[in-house]
Amino acid sequence: MAVTTRTRKSARRRQLEAAINYPIDWLEERSGLIGGLRYFLFRKVPGDTNWFHTLGSATLTAFLVQALTGVILAMYYQPDATVNPATGTSAAYGSIQHITNDLTLGWLVRGMHKWGASVFIILLFFHMARVFLFGAYKYPRELNWIIGVTLLVFGMLEGFTGYLLPWDQTAYWATVVGINLNGTAPILGPFLADFLRGGAEIGGDTLSRFYSLHMLLLPGAIFALIGLHLYLVIRLGVTSPPWSREAAGTDWNEKPSENGRSGLTQPSGRSAWRRNGADT
Amino acid sequence: MEPQHGDRPHSPGPSVHPIGFAAGVACILVGLIINPKLIAPIGAAIAIVFGFLWARDATKEFRGAPVHPVQPERGGPPPSTDAAAVPADQGEAAMPEPEPGERFPRSKFLEFSTLGLGGVIGGLVTVPALGFMVIPAYRKQGYPMVDLGPLTNFTEGKWFVTKFFMHPETGDVSHRTAYIRNNGFLNGKPSLTIISNRCAHLGCPVQPNGPVQDNQAKEIKGKNGQEITMIPTIPAGGYGCPCHGGQYDSEGNRVSGPPVRALDRYDFEVVDGRLVLGKPYSVAHVDGEGKNARIHKYKLTGPGEHVDGWEQIFYPLQPPH
Lengths: 280, 321
Known about the structure:
The structure holds two protein chains of two kinds. Chain A has helices at residues 2-31, 33-41, 55-73, 91-102, 106-133, 142-164, 169-183, 189-197, 204-236, 272-278. Chain A is mainly α. A five-stranded antiparallel β-sheet of chain B has the order 4-3-2-7-6, with no helix packed on it.
């Protein structure tokens, strides 16, 4: 009795598995995407990774929140400095007020974008501190450190360009100071300042220009660099913490690899996570 | 003695071209400061000539020019039987050697024509687009003449916070403030001190250090109906910047704090008894006071940029304004 129930259940289970597996196999056979995803997600990592290693993905999550909320805010925001004679305010500031005060949940999404920007930068710095203090920037990961620093710069440029968009007094004067700060750079500073302003004085062109940089150029560059960053993380593997007593890539039961560098990128033989409990 | 790999000369000996190129670049940089019209182009010419020679030397090998004709090493030590693979320079060539005169095979021609054509097409798209991104920002825009109403509104010897719009159609973003004092007449011509409120540090609005008599504010209309606000003030302590604490005296000279020069001023004209504001200009410092002031005047530059002293070498060029 019990046996038949189990076999019937497992038959249904087989049907269900086939129904799920068929489209997955179809996709895999034609694109290799599933294998790629497995390669991306089910990597071998050192057994003694800890919560500090999650700061990078936390930063990525913060950026994705910015991207999502930003796309939705762009559906309502108007990067237009023209003054509406009826209200006496600019279209840009008017649309910010409209988002915050009138539209359903607009206050929430704008708040997520505004405060999320700070969260993103703070997490960037925490992640950077983790990489620095763990010595994870060392050979062969120097290039990933360089890409990370570029991401930090682009992230701060996102903050600078985004700060102008509400087009209020704070935004205006912060941008005046920020652009003039760039203008004091030797030789090319005055030209850089004019490029940022789109002319000699801050005006409507500055707003459009910052909007374009903020939502097209910089996010595109950041997405591309995050792709490179993650590719190198996967290619080179995750570093052990500095207090780790195990040489990267060695295994309990196997003699150490002859090639000193093997296992530095991917632990060889039986994987490190397995021995941390999955075996038992 | 058998020839060793290390015996083969790899690269040409040291060349004078990089040094000449560096000298040319140095000449450009010096020329930009001393004489952008003569010295800098000479430096550029030197840099281009030596750069070309350098590049020609450096790419000799890749262009296929005969540098050091070396016989391909064939049939060196016989490959050992247990070796997994024969090193490429010892095995049979996968492709036949090109004919002696044929240094530019068809595959190379196709490669270069694909890259070249792709480069041309890419350039046709990106060069105008990048030009459109950059060049309009450096277009000469000029400054409008702003009518500030009858000169008689400006009582002689009194300061007025004067607020006006440089481009009224663009709204608050063109709101400007000047501190104006009528100094009476100098040699029969009206003399006015017109100080811009743009801080010479990073461009924040400076405020008078003294009472601003808001209750005596006067709204007047410019010639084409634009709004002008005049508020009497007594900047006894000069001017101060709220952002980073720069301090100026009432002539706009820097007293303390981060500013690098005096406050900017405006040119002016008096047309039919009305005060008309002209182009702003930068001021290193002012000697004297009022109508007898001697103004060390410079072309308008951005805040934080030195116009005099040795630091001016950092700002040799200004975009046209």
